Amino acid sequence: MSAVLKVENLKVHFPIKTGGFLNSTVVPLKAVDGVSFDVGAGECLGVVGESGCGKSTLGRAILQLIKPTDGRVLWLGENLCDLAPEAMRQKRSDLQLVFQDPLSSLNPRLSVAEIIREPLYAADPSISRGEADQRIDEIMSDVGLLPEMRNRYPHEFSGGQCQRIAIARAMVLKPKLIVCDEPVSALDVSIQAQVINLLRKLQREHGLSLIFISHDLSVVRHLCHRVMVLYLGRMMELADRDALFAKPLHPYTQALLSAVPIPDPALERAKEPLILSGDLPSPLHPPSGCVFRTRCPKASPKCIKEVPAVEVLSGGHQIACHHWQD
Amino acid sequence: MALFQSQSDAQLKLMDAAVRMRGRSLWQDALERFRRNTAAMGGVIVLCLIALMSMIGPLISPYTLEDLSWEAIGIAPTMTNSHWFGTDDTGRDLWVLTWMGARVSLTIGVMTTIVAMSIGVIYGATAGYAGGRTGNAMMRFVDVLYALPLLFFIIILVTVFGRNIYLVFLAIGCVEWLTMARIVRGQTLSVKRKDYIEAALASGVRTGTIIRRHVIPNVIGPVIVYVTLLVPTNILVESYLSFLGLGVQEPLTSWGVLISRGANSLETAPWLLLIPATFLAITMFCFNFIGDGLRDALDPKDR
Ligand SMILES: Nc1ncnc2c1ncn2[C@@H]1O[C@H](COP(=O)(O)OP(=O)(O)OP(=O)(O)O)[C@@H](O)[C@H]1O
Ligand SMILES: [Mg+2]
Fold first, then answer.
1. ipTM of this complex prediction, to 2 decimal places
2. Is residue B2 part of a domain?
3. B21 CA to centre of own chain
4. Sheet of A78-79, strands arranged across
5. What is the pLDDT of residues A210-251, one digit of tens each?
6. N or C: which end of chain B has fewer CB within 10 A?
7. CB of B210 within 8 Å of any CB in chain A?
8. Which residue of B has its CA nearest to A108?
9. Is residue B8 in some structural domain?
10. Is A29 close to ligand 1, i.e. is its CB under 6 Å away?
């Protein structure tokens, strides 16, 4: 599988003003701090982690909706961070985004057809009305919406249908990569399955690459080929789905997985839950060394001093931990 | 029960099919709610009547603005010789004066509001959308203009350029857009955080289009309400100016001019004050009812 997207040492730091009026200082909030990975053509990469660990920021930085502080985002070998705004605008039809809250991601004043037509016109202002309408009808039936609904407005749809509209808007330009930022967490469980299956179908039919952000591990397990675990803006572990779920190496991944219920009651009773102590530290003042050490059962003095380097094991399994072998 | 169920199901399907074809935008919903508001609809009707009369009223009367007659000075309202609203101290017919004044007052109210709205919406939406340092600088400029007293500003304009009705439009409009810009900026800041803006950016939609298609339609609700309150405010401002002798000039007249002159002869000819003042008050009420109705109709909490 050849990589379409390569992210190298990506950093997004938000300058945060602290202190009073006179002695204010600017502290960087390291929302994403030195993350590297790649995504293959037709691959689905899951990104998991607790709330506030920088998943959405990572997705937006890849699409250049937030300017990264440092690092490179290579799309088909070209660094998106260096592109001028107009050159980046041209690239946008390749890279799309689906949001968590379906209602807030659709302009309530526009009808479905107008919403889906907008990217078409942005990419090609000379497109004829008839062709645009035809593409809209096609994509609507592709995502499971009746084309007759084209003149309806978002508030006349259910959450699941709104998410389908958002997916149609993202898909209409035939992009090569879609970043899905928790696309199902606002939906009912039964609707979640439908939307997940839709994404899977579209991905297979169109050879789409997906970056699927979620904090629901069972969804990630169902959909993704590889999974990346983030903690406080840093990558902890990245591995093939089966390897990660069968044998998580990082203590944080182990803790995350132990919180997922197992469908087999016997196994579920037998497993000993690994509960993390303490709260997520503030990203403004992350712990020294390994950011996870304050909650890690294996933490040692070395973890306080040294930031663990990312080790690449066999099968492309990547891990950032001093003690994964213990 | 089962029968009832299936019947309502069938009904729902019918309704569903009908709606599916059309789709009802939020604007249509709001219009529907507005139509059901009796006070607001009453306001609209009365206002239309006043506007209509301002057009045809002077034509109905046998007199014109230029008819000064020595025999008819200070006549009280009467049906006998067609001076339905009486005459003033130079013998001009008050019916004609009132409707001619309505033309000027309503035009000033509407025109100044259009000026204020255009500048305010574009400026406020741009400042809000740009945000950061640019947006702040733009709003500080508004603050500076706020500190300038309206009257002072208009007196300067009038002394420099002379008295002129277009100048009055411009002067009032140029001052009233400040509040509009603030309202729009505040609304824009909240709309800007919506995901659909980011989705548009991610699709490569240009900034101008985003402001026009996504920002302005979603902030325009409070603006419309404010506009209906601004029209009567501006009519009043023109009245103050006329009262001070800075408004429209003879032979043009406005309600403000009529009221200020009527106030001088309150003891001898009270109708000269009461009639134009009543129409001014009715107009104010109408705009306020319409504003209330619009606010209720556009209120997103009802969605
Ligand atoms: N524009 C911003 N300015 C300052 N700080 C920000 C900004 N956007 C995000 N952050 C901070 O960056 C960190 C990561 O935020 P992000 O939204 O990426 O988290 P997340 O993993 O997506 O969380 P969630 O699961 O709740 O969506 C948070 O601490 C957040 O407060
Ligand atoms: Mg998020």
1. 0.88
2. no
3. 35
4. A25-40, A3-18, A70-75, A78-79
5. 999 998 888 899 899 999 999 999 999 999 999 999 889 999
6. N
7. no
8. B26
9. no
10. yes
